[in-house]
Amino acid sequence: MATKLLQIARKVVDGLIWFSVGLAALGLIFEVIVIVIDVMGRAAGRPLYGSLDLITMGFVIIVFGAMSLCIKNIFDIFSICFFLI
Question: The pTM is what?
Fold first, then answer.
């Protein structure tokens, strides 16, 4: 029973991790779009106001969105190395 519950919990957590990674990927796409629009706007003399704030918020989404996958991979590596599985 405990192993079945652990498998279900692992699937749920993996789903949440990949959802978080998907948000990080969307944040990266958002970053690229904002930077391209800002650079093109500056060349035309009409920069995107607030682009620095948007880029800063995008970096937060990217970092914390991808952090869950990094932590999972580090735990998997350590559990294999130290036989904690």
Answer: 0.76
